[in-house]
Amino acid sequence: MIIYDDSATGNFLERWNDRKQYIEAHTSGSTGKPKTIRLLKSDMIASAESTCRFFGLNSGSTLVCPLSADYIAGKMMIVRALVSGSTLYMEHPSSRPLPDKDYGHIDLLPVVPAQLDGLLAVEHDYEIRNVIIGGAPLSHEAELRLYEAGFKSYSTYGMTETCSHVALRHISTDSDNEYIALPGYRFSADDRSCLIIHSSLQSFTELRTNDVVELIDEKRFRWLGRHDNVIITGGLKVHPEILERKISSLIGQVFYISSGPDEKWGQHIILHIEGDACDTEDLMSLLRKKLKSHELPREIIFSKKFDRTSSGKIIRQ
Question: What pTM did the predictor assign?
Fold first, then answer.
């Protein structure tokens, strides 16, 4: 049973029940211009069944989705409900993802990082058994808050082309940043150390990515960052995403790392901060204690507001 009062969910259900074998979806646009792709309904069912097996979802389960069915995350929650027979509440997307409603319990709740403050700010009388977070990387502080709040939470790895996540990372104090494959998937890496996804369930069979990983075995990897974003300074590789996690506790504003050309070092680090400019001497002093010399930013650029995709991902300049 799917409970909803929005047009996006109704439109998706109409397309799901038509005679076409595919659903049109859009890539995020965070690493290039968004593009429309066709996802086979059979692939979406296979992905949903894998997630349902992992979380043990069935006709007695309750799902809540505070994400729009205009995007792949919302679409896939609907498909998971359809294949498992679960009850799904499609709520209006909001920074406060759960309205004042008695769900009894929630077996699976997907959120994006922008909704975490709203989720953690409200006390619930019901049990939230599993939370999955996707859309953008989580800061170390956000993960710690989730863990301390007692949520059983997972960071997701996947993309529109795979219909959703293919691996999950359990958020805890000792998770070691390992993503573990869902049923039906395995991994390898190419000569760039970029992840290759192998599927026995979906039509793509093998999908090459631009995500640099540390491959542990065919079922586990550590995500290091995007190959497109790697910075080489003084002959040393720097992954901006790893750097961002290292310094996230030092910066109280939204930020990201990029690079610029450097005559001496090839490239140098640039720290972009969203919001009003401020004195950076104290910040640089803290960064020197946390980072190696080649990791230190040579520029700090303040922007009133970062460009973002329609789903909220920062578009790196």
Answer: 0.83
